[in-house]
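Predict the assembly for these two chains.
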Amino acid sequence: MMTSLIASHPKTQRLERLTALVNDALERTLPKAALPPQVVHEAMRYCVFPGGKRFRPLLCLGACEAVGAPARQALSAACAVELIHTYSLVHDDLPAMDNADERRGQPACHRKFGEGNAILVGDALLTLAFELLSRNGAPNSLAIIRRFGHACGTVGLIGGQVLDLQVISQPRTSTERTLRDIAQRKTAALISASVAAGALAGGAASGPPLKRLERYGQEIGLAFQLVDDVHDVEGLARVMGADQARSEAKRLITRAVRALEPFGKRAGILRQLADWLVAISAR
Amino acid sequence: MMTSLIASHPKTQRLERLTALVNDALERTLPKAALPPQVVHEAMRYCVFPGGKRFRPLLCLGACEAVGAPARQALSAACAVELIHTYSLVHDDLPAMDNADERRGQPACHRKFGEGNAILVGDALLTLAFELLSRNGAPNSLAIIRRFGHACGTVGLIGGQVLDLQVISQPRTSTERTLRDIAQRKTAALISASVAAGALAGGAASGPPLKRLERYGQEIGLAFQLVDDVHDVEGLARVMGADQARSEAKRLITRAVRALEPFGKRAGILRQLADWLVAISAR
């Protein structure tokens, strides 16, 4: 039930250029595949490339620009969130979890490299994310690590997957309330943290602008999960119905964009990402 | 082949008091078991308590005192290393890895809580370690995170476990060289990082004192693995023979203690830990 790849939908040129920037930075960040032990480095790259839409790193770059800094100042944070997201997919796909055969159109990591290696690949991606954030040297680095640590912990990502495991083992007990709790922890928490991390990397202090961006992140995060569930006919869309899920997603996106008003033109990337999500949900 | 519990051996009163300090801090650091989702919090506590000898956190506190700061100034770093060590044990014990039924005299985490939860418990302990280090607020926090990130990554802990998996699947190919590489990555790297982190938490800058302490950490770390392997009749002790392993451990400990000379009395905790290891190896 983890956010799966939302099928290709054209991005604006700006978003495409930023996606390329993120991919280049990920390429430089990941250890070379030839470095021993090769299997783990090869497998890390296999999971990260070609990858999905890079929605979370783009949100991170967009929030950085929204607070008045160059988008690329948040590039380390953007790479870190993609590594974290990929780790969560690799572990969620394991036989003891969702037992998925495929991910992003190719065999899941554990099918290709074995279960033991897949567990270690996830561990390595998570560890590399924190190491990357610590190497960055930006003044708000500790605040960014704290923010991601919190979003990835048992109140966020991991707690959501624990609940998801319970739903997998007893699917009949899954109420809308439980599924909302899972979506909040597994998707919205990390998406909101991506936005906050971008703003922090751009030099934002705690205060109203950061709070507004976090609200945008929460709303766009839940909308993203709804749109994804509509697409895959699962999760919330299954219990709510596709129409209701689609209209709630639109309401959330409208509210998210409203939170961007005080940022004016600087919130251009974040608005384009919201528009992109609207376009997908309309299909 | 992961470092298993070295059976009870009396510590000095000082070491016992510091162990209690670490246990109290871990108690405060771990989320309460009653917090939802309860199963993951209950399982995290199950794995951390009563726990092993707390060798790594004690090294961390000892290094802090060695550089002239109060030992408890490294308490967050000490807790973080114990969380990291416990995460590595939980993941190493999984069916896809060592498939261990027991750990520290009780059913392994995955036997008690299921495989999916055990994977998530390991993830949660690792994540909490980094979050804890980021909350600490000490000036060297980023350097400590970088040090642990490096020691836990594919050049260290994870790389060692990848190699260990290869040995498990093809035990005949395990040469002394491979086993040394594994011991270096899985044990010595994290132990050396524990010592470095303690010194950094005590305010040490990069330079000769930090280098010396790291050398102590490397040597005591490899010695620890040798002593543990002699005890369990596995790993290096199996290919080298117990006598050779025991005498190499003693040589390493002697060299490690020699590296402490410039620190005088301040290195008292680190010397007591070395003595404790000698006493165990003599049994």
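The mean pLDDT of chain A is 93. The radius of gyration of chain A is 18 Å.
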